[in-house]
Backbone:
């Protein structure tokens, strides 16, 4: 009976995916999609794995596939949140595994035949030297490419990003000899935005979070002021193209006021 149910469900989803695929070309495509890749550990436990790092590995294997969906849909920038500042306090074994998995998948992204550009967003000073160097090297190999821009958010936290941006701004003006009173006169949101990790890129139009959690957890706090959010119950390793298309369909149907 269980086999029959699975086959029926598979057939139903196949028809649903086919119907949705017919309309994908009509969807309004977001320029920038941010993704919170959540649920790897819970997926591993529910799948029967004893090591939660297997969930991180399977989740990493999903990334290039999803980037392909983004490229095919006309998305220009994708930001992947792979390691938060909070994640740095995880157990030594899990953190060590993540600091191997993340550089590996970043190398995989950088070495794809598509002309994808890798940009590391986050505070790499918070990472050990070896994985930090690997991440920087992967990004360097993609310089000058003109395809999909992939932001790999590692050692990333929205509050940390804003603090780092203000720090860079202050240091720049100190070096130029600008007085604090003069700086206070001219300081505005654009000055801070110029020093964010994502400087020069459009803000995310759509932010997707998997695993059923409905919060940002500090992801792109500054840039997401006018973003649309889409929360998916599927854990990241189980995220399907059908789920991605549903996110695009939902985004396309919204009326974006952008604060107006």
Residues:
């Amino acid at each position: 009976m269980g086999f029959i149910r699975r086959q029926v469900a598979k057939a139903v989803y196949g028809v649903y995916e086919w119907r949705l695929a017919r309309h994908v070309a009509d969807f309004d495509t977001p320029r920038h999609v941010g993704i919170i890749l959540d649920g790897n550990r819970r997926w591993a436990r529910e799948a029967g794995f004893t090591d939660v790092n297997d969930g991180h590995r399977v989740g990493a294997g999903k990334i290039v596939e999803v980037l392909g969906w983004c490229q095919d849909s006309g998305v220009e920038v994708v930001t992947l949140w792979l390691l938060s500042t909070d994640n740095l306090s995880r157990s030594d074994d899990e953190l060590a595994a993540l600091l191997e998995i993340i550089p590996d998948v970043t190398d995989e992204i950088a070495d794809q035949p598509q002309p994808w550009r890798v940009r590391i967003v986050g505070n790499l000073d918070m990472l050990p030297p070896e994985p930090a160097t690997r991440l920087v090297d992967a990004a360097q190999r993609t310089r000058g490419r003109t395809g999909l821009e992939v932001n790999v958010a590692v050692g990333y936290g929205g509050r940390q990003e804003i603090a780092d941006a203000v720090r860079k701004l202050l240091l720049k003006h100190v070096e130029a000899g600008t007085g604090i009173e003069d700086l206070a006169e001219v300081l505005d949101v654009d000055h801070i935005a110029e020093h964010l990790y994502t400087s020069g890129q459009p803000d995310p139009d759509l932010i997707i979070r998997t695993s059923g959690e409905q919060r940002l957890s500090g992801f792109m706090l500054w840039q997401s002021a006018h973003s649309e959010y889409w929360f998916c119950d599927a854990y990241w390793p189980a995220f399907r193209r059908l789920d991605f298309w549903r996110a695009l369909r939902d985004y396309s149907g919204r009326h974006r006021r952008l604060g107006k």
Summary: The mean pLDDT is 91.
